[in-house]
Specification:
Layout (H helix, E strand, L loop, with lengths): L1 E4 L2 H11 L5 E7 L2 E7 L5 E8 L3 E5 L4 E6 H8 L7 E7 L2 E7 L3 E7 L17 E6 H12 L4 E6 L5 E6 L3 E6 L4 E4 L3 E6 H11 L4 E6 L5 E6 L4 E6 L8
Antiparallel strand pairs: 1-5, 1-7, 2-3, 2-6, 3-4, 4-18, 7-8, 8-9, 10-14, 10-16, 11-12, 11-15, 12-13, 16-17, 17-18
Helix pairs in contact: 1-2, 3-4
Length: 243
């Protein structure tokens, strides 16, 4: 396998985000491109990352390739690439050769590992509420809630208003009408961990828009996408005392 990326920061940023949820993953390469699907050790969140074949300037693989990697080690290497670097990934026996080319060609070797977890797929879920909003607004709303609580509620009210609300000893609330977000939803409410949502926020910083899909007391799907990649998360609801 030999693949080349002219925009390695996209991959580096995504790997950094994923590494906060899982330590080891199976990275798959096939005719469609590169993808990762993994679940965190607590079985609370799943992540899916796709880098389409069109994102690569060179993409030579033998049918399918599956690479077991330690994400912390890979993250450290990818951080060495600049915005104008070219990244080359090449497999040789049980080693991933990584070249970073800019003014000077730099080379790294990353030992591949056996990742024994079963192959996973993102669940197919039926969502009653779908929200599209500016990523900067989503980031601000979640960060507001994290100041006062460890979980927040996503609420669609009668009349179509979307609310992100957290309440502990203190409270925080962000309200979105059809002027600030695209709301295709029916009234519902579900509660989610802010610890995980804050990890997802780093994905929001990669795209202009954030897509939220949820139903009453059901998992939340958070989607970030641009022309180079797709990064999706599924988060289990947090069921406890009402706000």
């Amino acid at each position: 396998m030999l693949v080349k990326l002219e925009n390695p920061k996209t991959l580096a940023n995504a790997i950094g985000i994923i590494s906060e949820l899982v330590v080891e993953v199976r990275i798959k390469f096939n005719e469609e491109g590169m993808n990762i699907v993994a679940i965190d050790p607590a079985n609370v969140a799943m992540v899916e990352f796709k880098l389409p074949r069109t994102s690569f300037s060179q993409f030579d693989i033998d049918d399918k390739e599956v690479l077991g990697v330690n994400l912390d080690n890979l993250k450290r290497i990818l951080k060495r690439a600049g915005s104008k670097s070219t990244l080359i990934l090449e497999t040789q026996e049980n080693v991933l050769k990584i070249q970073i080319q800019d003014r000077v060609k730099r080379s790294f070797s990353l030992s591949l590992i056996d990742v024994t977890s079963e192959d996973k797929e993102m669940p197919s879920l039926d969502f009653k509420s779908k929200i599209k909003l500016n990523s900067v607004d989503f980031i601000a709303s979640v960060e507001d809630c994290s100041v006062v609580a460890d979980a927040c509620s996503f609420i669609v009210e009668e009349g179509g208003k979307f609310v992100i609300h957290a309440k502990g000893l203190n409270s925080a609330k962000a309200e979105f009408s059809g002027d600030e977000a695209e709301i295709n939803a029916e009234p519902c409410k579900s509660r989610y961990s802010l610890e995980y949502l804050q990890k997802f926020l780093k994905g929001a910083k990669l795209t202009d828009k954030t897509f939220l899909k949820f139903s009453a007391d059901h998992p939340l799907r958070v989607e970030f996408a641009n022309e180079f990649m797709k990064l999706n998360f599924v988060l289990a609801p947090r069921v406890e005392t009402e706000d």
